[in-house]
Amino acid sequence: MILECLAVSTIYGITPLMEKYIIKFIEIESFIILSGLIIFMVCATYWFFFHKKKLWKDIQTIKNYPILFLLLFTTTILIYIVANFLYMSVIKHNKTYLGTSMIATYPIITVLLGYLLYNEDISLTHILGVFFIIGGVVLLTLT
Q1: Residue 112 has what pLDDT?
Q2: Cα separation of 95 and 53, whole Å?
Q3: Global pTM exceeds 0.85
Q4: 79 contacts 36 by C-beta, under 8 angstroms
Q5: Is residue 105 helix, strand or coil?
Q6: Phi/psi at 95 (5° precision)
Q7: Fewer CB within 10 A of the terminal residue: the chain, N end or C end?
Q8: What's the rounded Cα separation, in Å, for the pair 32 and 19?
C-alpha cells in the first residue's frame, strides 16, 4: 500500500505542473474535453480487450439499480467537469504549490463524511492528521 500511495503522490505532484504549462496555450474547457476523450479512448480500449465480461456485468448491475447510474453521473459531472474546471482555474491564476496544497484539504471532508455516511471510525490519529493538514495549509498561505 505504501508504494502505491507514494506512486500516486508522485503522479499528483508532477501533473499540476504539466497541466499549468498546457493551459498556458489552450483553454481550460478544451483541456477538460480533450483529456476526457483521451481517458475514454484508453479506458474503453483496455476494458474492451481485457475486461469485457466485467464491463457488461457492471452495466447490467447499473441497469438493475438506477441509483447507481444517478450517482455515477453526478460524481462524473462533479469530478471531471466542476472540480477540474475550478482546479485548473486555481493553478492557472496562482502559484501551483499553493493551489494544490489548499485543494489537498479534501481529506478533512472525506473523514467527516465517512464518519457521517458510513459510520467509519475516527481515531485521535485522524483528528491530529486533520489538524496537521489545516496547519500546513495555513503555513503555506503565510509565505
Answers
A1: 87
A2: 45
A3: no
A4: no
A5: coil
A6: -65, 135
A7: N
A8: 10
